[in-house]
Amino acid sequence: MLPESRTPDETFAIPRFELTPRDVEGFLDELQTFHDHFRSCFARSEPRGHFFNYMVGQCSELERKSIEPMALEVAGGNVRGMQRFISDNIWDEDKMRQTYHGLVAAEMGDPEGVLIVDESGFVKKGKESVGVARQYCGSLGKVENCQVGVFAAYASRHGYALVDKRLFMPETWFGEDYAQRRHKCQVPEELRFHTKPQLAAEMVKAIRGEGRLPFKYVVADCLYGNSPDFLDAIEACVGVTSLVSVPSDTRCWLQRPVTTEKTYKYKGAIRLQRVVAPEGAAPLTVAALAQHLPSSGWYRRRVSEGSKGPLEYEFARKRVTLCKDDLPERTVWLVIKRTLGTHPTDSFYISNAPASAPLRLFVWLSGIRWAVEQSFEETKTELGMAHYEVRKYPGWHRHMLTSMLAHFFLWHLKLRLGKKSTSANGVAGAGVIGSGLTPAHVYD
């Protein structure tokens, strides 16, 4: 079981999800009302109907929720029609996403909301699916033939939901050898290679620029914390505080060093180079800094409640100046989180929080990423997010979007009912799976 964020004096605790079969009477009527928000995103009634049936299939008790079994489960379902709907029909996806964000803001929005960035892998057997390659798959913890998506989740005191996505396209996919495959998969001609942190930066800037989802904090792992593109995107969001992981070999200074300029000759021309002054100290890795901190600099704090009781860590923090290309860069908080026991391990974070920020803020933010992990677990296992068999670029994005909507719809039911969670093991979809509320039962 993933931990729930519980910290003394924390900003807020994110609730867990639970629905029971008794809660979903009139499920299809509720879903139809929910879908009415998106009517204008489709020009014709046929794809609008497939959109409804697709989400009904995702919320059904089917074990495998790919297109064919979902279409056959729905009364009057059409396999080929649903395939065309997900890959070829015209949707106004931008309008759908903006409408969705408005709904999330209305039901989960909070001025102190948290935007959480993470990636997730989808294992594939063949080589024809868009963006597929042998690459690191986080869900397996190893290199595998897979697709990788970069996602943004939103969390508040009212709940959590995935709110945006980007498909990571490996650089090899943009070479001439892949031209025919790109065309076959309907990859937009204007699309160019972007790293995962660059994709994440795009999402953060887009959500901030759109202005529908209020958030005060951003949390991400070390892939993104090590990226100037991503950190710059956060800095552009005035008033937003971040806590992002960094690798142990990240270099920094405890005191910002003085820099000077020296001259050198290059191809006969005299040039200037900015360097750290000779009397300046060499930068330390964050791992080395942690080892030299006195015991008085560490504080034991409870981060969360787990299935086996409270989870506690030791925390330390220091104001440091990061080192980039052997020169001082931004000044940040370095936060170190250490496990307890005879063989402790350290995790490292940086934050743009002001110098006056209390330690409890960092403790709370360090334990909040469970919300995006829980979103992946629930949406993949219960709603078929990982069951797709589409190969085209539009199809991947549309399937992910409908999966995100299905997950949020179940949260919508919970929030509308005003039900308080009574079980730590509740999962999204649990109230529908096994309840017998499949379309075939209702429409017959």
SSE layout:
Layout lengths: L3 E2 L21 H9 L9 H14 L8 H7 L5 H9 L5 H16 L5 E10 L9 E5 L4 E15 L2 E10 L10 H6 L11 H15 L6 E4 L1 H4 L2 H8 L5 E6 L4 E3 L5 E8 L2 E8 L7 E2 H6 L7 E8 L2 E16 L2 E12 L7 E6 L7 H8 L3 H14 L9 H25 L21 H5 L1
Protein name: Transposase IS701-like DDE domain-containing protein
Pfam families: DDE_5
InterPro entries: IS701-like, IS701-like_DDE_dom, RNaseH-like_sf
Mean pLDDT: 86
Q: What's the count of strands? A: 15
SSE pattern: EHHHHHEEEEHHEHHEEEEEHEEEEHHHH
The helix/strand class is: alpha+beta
Model regions low in confidence, pLDDT < 50 over at least 5 residues:
1-8, 420-444
Instruction: Count every helix, treating DSSP H or I runs of 4 or more residues as helices.
Output: 14
Shape: globular
Rg from alpha-carbon coordinates = 24 Å
Beta-strand content bin:
25-35%
- Outline the biggest β-sheet: 13 strands, mixed
Helix content: 25-40%
End-to-end Cα distance, whole Å, is 38 Å
Number of domains: 2
Organism: Glutinoglossum americanum
InterPro entries: IS701-like, IS701-like_DDE_dom, RNaseH-like_sf
Protein name: Transposase IS701-like DDE domain-containing protein
Pfam families: DDE_5 (PF13546)
